[in-house]
Design brief:
The complex is a heterodimer of chains A (about 170) and B (about 120).
Chain A (H helix, E strand, L loop, with lengths): L1 H25 L12 E2 L4 E3 L6 E3 H4 L5 E7 L4 H14 L4 E8 L3 H11 L5 E5 L3 H5 L7 E6 L2 E7 L4 H10 L2
Parallel strand pairs in A: 4-5, 5-6
Antiparallel strand pairs in A: 1-8, 2-3, 4-7, 7-8
Chain B lengths: L1 H15 L7 H9 L17 H15 L4 H12 L14 H29 L1
The chains are: A alpha/beta (about 170), B mainly alpha (about 120).
């Protein structure tokens, strides 16, 4: 009895382990966030960049309008790269660009905008990065395309020509 | 005498753990169980990245608001998905992970049990 059962169990256990490892080979071990999630935008209050007044997100984001919510910072080098693209996109009337100034020094941020231009209609301030977490952001730069108070698309990292033309396609 | 020694060792092992309990414990426990998504193979507790530092502040703030550990996990799961938790939940993707150790333990137990009784029978 024992002699029959033992090899059977050994083969069974190795078989199970083999299947698990074989399945594991197919999965990528690089984490890829889901970029096409249609989530509601978070409701939050934060300081306005220029007036220091408390802004309500519900007053800024109106339904049936398209917004690009862009998280940026003056210390972030990729933000500098994507900034000219945001400037050209801001010329488009169909889309409003809203900024979130992430963990920044106010003086540096003002200099950044003076140097490169201000594409933002409104800018929120995020002193400690908590507002960005409410948006489910990973870092700077990151952009969210919003329609009807829902996130249509998420861009992690700097925007490039492709993503800009994609946005222009989507808002047509 | 030996029983007393064993008893003392267990007594200290169990009770010295609770000597270090303080307010930060809960926060550290939560941040240790959160994956730092922008780092590689680090928990939020271990990391010093901007993302991790913000999360630490957030966890502190949520604890002050009176949220429980599980409520904070749920909140972050909505924002970032289940990947942010180190402790995977039992679902269709993870059932092998959870059930395999139990299965192996049971099979091992059966083998040990059978061998044990067979040897006893042989001796008789």
């Amino acid at each position: 009895m024992k002699k029959k059962l033992l090899p059977f169990f050994v083969i069974l256990i190795f078989g199970i382990i083999f299947i698990i490892f074989y399945k594991g080979l197919e999965d990528t071990n690089i984490y890829t966030p889901n970029l096409n999630v249609k989530k509601d935008i978070p409701i939050f209050n934060s300081k306005d960049f220029y007036s220091d007044k408390i802004l309500k997100s519900s007053d800024i984001f109106e339904p049936n309008k398209i917004y690009l919510f862009n998280i940026w910072s003056s210390w972030c080098v990729p933000c500098r790269q994507e900034h000219p693209l945001l400037m050209t996109l801001s010329l488009n009337d169909k889309i409003n660009i809203i900024g979130l100034n992430y963990k920044d020094n106010k003086k540096n941020a003002v200099n950044f905008l003076q140097e490169l231009g201000n594409p933002y209609k409104k800018i929120f301030i995020d002193v400690d990065g908590i507002k960005a977490i409410e948006w489910g952001a990973y870092g700077v730069p990151e952009s969210f395309l919003i329609y009807n108070n829902k996130i249509i698309k998420k861009y992690i990292g700097p925007l490039n020509q492709n993503s800009i033309s994609e946005i222009k396609q989507l808002i047509k | 005498m030996n029983i007393l020694k064993v008893f003392l060792i267990f007594f200290f092992l169990i009770h010295l753990n609770s000597v270090k309990a303080d307010d930060q414990d809960e926060r550290n426990q939560i941040t240790k169980n959160l994956r730092c998504l922008v780092c590689q193979g680090q928990s939020v507790y271990d990391s010093d990245s901007e993302f991790a530092n913000s999360l630490k502040i957030l966890v502190k703030q949520k604890l002050n608001e009176g949220l429980s550990e599980n409520q904070i996990y749920d909140y972050l799961k909505i924002k970032y998905g289940e990947w942010i938790l180190y402790d995977p939940e039992l679902n269709k993707n993870t059932y092998i992970l959870w059930l395999l150790p139990i299965l192996i333990f049971l099979i091992g137990g059966v083998i040990v049990f059978k061998n044990f009784f067979k040897k006893k029978k042989d001796q008789l």
